[in-house]
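Worked problem 6 (solution included).
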Amino acid sequence: MKKPQYPLFILLVILATIGAAKSEVIKGLVAHFRQIEDPLLESGTASAAVFDDFHRNMILALKPQQQVTKALSMAINRVDGATEFIINHAHKWHDQIEYNEQLKTMLSPALVSPEISVRMAAFEIYLASFSLDKSAAQIDILMDRFDNEPESRPWAIWSIGLIAARGVERQKAFDEIEWQIHSEDPITRKWAVNAMGILGGQESILPLLDIAANDVNLFVRERAFCELANSGTLQITERYQAIPSLFDIAADQKQSPQVHRWAFQALREITVTNLGDDLDLWQEKLNQLELLNP
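Solution. The predicted structure is:
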């Protein structure tokens, strides 16, 4: 009588068991797929977009103006690696690209993107489009234009803020911008406020709060509230430093209803909490979070 081939038999049992296990895993995964009759998902990630060599080579094959718009579009759509590409290549676009209507339109959402890296990439493109170097000498040139070309003052002071935001002569830029924040001209003050928000850093908080609370021009004050709330380059931890003073402005009965609304709006945007314009609720919540001064 022929003996059974036990090793072969055991191997077949093991393979069958593994196959069954795999089948159950696959069934479990399939169960999580959205079926045809299911509603569309309202959240989640559609794909993990990455700026790889394919995208890099595709963009580099284009003309400079097209390179910029394509890379910026990918950065706005948060393609991982697009902002780094822009920051690393922006210096090559000097004297090669034009600040036209298309680029201006595309830069608008990039400058207020929730991602600081996208904002910084937009700064680089803006500087490249005007062939502005990131250097101390360039800041000196812009300061000279500010002093001698009144019609260029808004552009010059904002550009100084952009260069300083990229790490060049920050203290020198801060001193100039802070001086111009108190200019007699409200247009100059408005653009200096924008530049202070672009400059960023915790040293920008107090000047912006001072303007928000005390400037005689409402348009200038509104810009200060915006820079404190969500514009510019302030990090969220730096914005939190403004919360006690913003609450004080909201509580100050000497302030106008409009200023109160701006203060509450800034609190909502910084804390991502919506308590309306109810001062008592805000005080209770901010005390719970230990965000008010003791």
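Discussion: The two ends are 94 Å apart (CA to CA).
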